[in-house]
Amino acid sequence: MRVLLFSSWSINEGTARGTLFPLIEMMEKNQAIDRIYFCTVEPNDFKEAPIHLEKTVHIPLRSGVIPMVDKVWNLIRLPMLLKNIVQRNAIDLIWCKGAPAGGVGTFVHFLTGSPYVIDSFEPHSEYMVQSGTWSEMNPKFLVQQWLEALTLKHAPALLPVSQKYYALLVKRGIERERLFVFPCVINLQQFAFNAHARKIKRNALHIKNTGIVGIYVGKYGGLYYDHEAFLLYRHLFRFFGSEFFLIIITESNPKKLQTKIEEHQLPADHCFISKASHREIGDFLSAADFAISTIKSVPAMGYCSPIKHGEYWAADLPILSTLDVGDDAEIMRDEGGGVVLDVQDHEPDKKLAELKSMIGNRGSGLYSKFAFKYRHPSIMADAIEFVLNKFVSKKEAAD
């Protein structure tokens, strides 16, 4: 079987590195798959980085140079480019990563008749509006909502990322046999707690053995709290005192974040802000004592599967989360995977005391068990088998 794997992310984005590459590596191991054509949307100045995999060839699709014009034009251009790739390479299955990619995949399906699957399926249009990133009159919202409706109607297989969204889709009339829950799984070894890395990182950052380190990995704005996140940091510094140290690993502009630290009167000498490659993040997580997740708590985000949560748990860290809905929030509340904090809570000491009680015993497996249970790579293997069982048998019958 020949698979076209399509993502609207750039190959260099952290999300792509965290979700697409493990998927490709798992597909490479599957004997039913002969060839993988990996297509990503890249900027015009993209420089190809070789992928050293046996079955996989990377095909970058250029995104253009005028953002608003190109986003509209790409709805026509990308399906035509992918149609040519499908026909030229006799593709048997189109695998789309994410709801936006799924909309494009639906058009390619109409153009070619090739079966397709939508992986990492989430209510993208809903959470973009609810988070305030888009308005309901934004053309992006209207187009994405329309594409998601087409996908729900026509995709033979959908892989929602959460049990909550699976239940909602079933309630909305989507047949169970089309669905398989596939959360954002994690490379458990890459993010596993490393005592040696912890010592090296903490020494490099001049953190005392008694220091309590909180770490945030991610962005600010859009789906994530910005000003509110820094107010939370202030609470943490007040509660833990001079022993507290904050690590921020982000793709956001470090200079702007330094300005925010000054504006919120945080101790700059106890804050470390940096960018890091996906492979470096595990060492920073090992240096920490708890992890911070400041995703906006809106209803639609409860249907998502934040990859950072899996990485945090894999590093054996309890999570301080502002997202109070969804699968992960239930794991934190009901199973002890962390603490859920209302970002509007101006007196959060009770929750912070609960978090403090979870700190310590690094590498004990107390929190990594949640990554093994809910984000294990074996779920990915099962998802691939679910998809192939739907399409390989039909292909063999046709042959």
Strand order of the largest sheet: 3-2-1-4-5-6
CATH architecture of the largest domain: 3-Layer(aba) Sandwich
**Order of H and E elements:** EHEEHEHEHHEHHHEHEHEHEHEHEHHH
In angstroms, what separates the terminal alpha carbons?
12 Å
> Can you give the mean pLDDT?
91
Strand portion: 15-25%
Low-confidence stretches: 65-69
Structural class: alpha/beta
| Helical residue percent band | 40-55%
Shape type: globular
What does the largest sheet look like? 6 strands, parallel
Radius of gyration from CA coordinates: 22 Å
Q: What fold name goes in the CATH topology slot of the largest domain?
A: Rossmann fold
The CATH class of the largest domain: Alpha Beta
Overall tally of structural domains:
2
Q: How many strand segments?
A: 12
Give the CATH superfamily of the largest domain: Glycogen Phosphorylase B
- Count the helices. How many? 16
Please tell me about this protein's structure:
The structure is a single chain. By secondary structure, the chain is of the alpha/beta class. The protein has two domains: 2-185 and 376-398, 3-Layer(aba) Sandwich (Rossmann fold); 188-374, Rossmann fold, CATH 3.40.50.2000. Helix content is 46%, strand content 16%. The chain contains 16 helices and twelve strands. The chain has helices at 14-29, 67-88, 99-112, 124-130, 139-154, 163-171, 188-191, 195-204, 227-240, 254-263, 281-287, 307-314, 327-335, 349-358, 368-374, 377-398; strands at residues 2-7, 35-42, 56-62, 93-97, 116-121, 157-160, 212-217, 244-249, 271-274, 290-293, 319-321, 338-340. The strands form two sheets. A six-stranded parallel β-sheet has the order 3-2-1-4-5-6, sandwiched between helices. Strands 9-8-7-10-11-12 form a six-stranded parallel β-sheet, sandwiched between helices. The longest helix has 22 residues, at 67-88. The radius of gyration is 22 Å and the shape is globular.
